Amino acid sequence: MTQTTKPSRVMAAMVSMVRRGRGRRHRSPCRPPEADRLTLIGAGVQALDQVRAVHAVRPLRQLTVVDMDSGRARALIEALEPELSGVDIVAATDAESAVRGAEIVCCATHATSPLFPESALPAQLHVNAIGAFRPTMRELPDELLATGTVVIDELDAVLEESGEIIHALRAGAITQDALTELGTALTSPPAEYGKRTVFKTVGIAMQDWAIARLLADKFLR
């Protein structure tokens, strides 16, 4: 392998591992297990891999892409269509309406207030919230966090950066005891998850380092 091809192979492997890693986040808690209707809110840079990760572990039948910029939503759909043969894909601008029939919701925005009310959500679904990464940002309503099983990437990180977790704690909607770290959820999952599950991530440098170390060991030695 040449010096020129090494970086491209490493990058390809990194993308593959990230997708698989994100997919594992869906595997245990995502309910119902046969879920195949995804609503994606936010058609930005994170969107493509969010859909791919969900589709890898929950093959999709229906996808709704929500974005205030209809052109950006259409561009994402066009990029996904070759990979999602047979999936019914539509664009929308109203998040509240779009989540009503969803079984999985992925939020990848910079919203500063909840994207939808808790009352718009079905009784059973899984929500990924990856976009809000500052205390001033919020994608999810307190009521969803209060009524669902909430998995986070790392407690100290979300207490510092996750606006929806910080807001819900300050409002008394949840307590820290209601938050389950991802490592615990994967290694010692609860006997049963609630009908609504939420995964909130702000991104952890240690996870990135671990992936980089694995890739370096595999491809650069």
UniProtKB/TrEMBL annotation:
InterPro entries: NAD(P)-bd_dom_sf, ODC_Mu_crystall
One of the record's GO cellular component terms: cytoplasm
Organism encoding this protein: Streptomyces himastatinicus ATCC 53653
Protein name, per record: Ornithine cyclodeaminase
Signal peptide per UniProt: none
Domain of life, per lineage: Bacteria
SUPFAM superfamilies in UniProt: NAD(P)-binding Rossmann-fold domains (SSF51735)
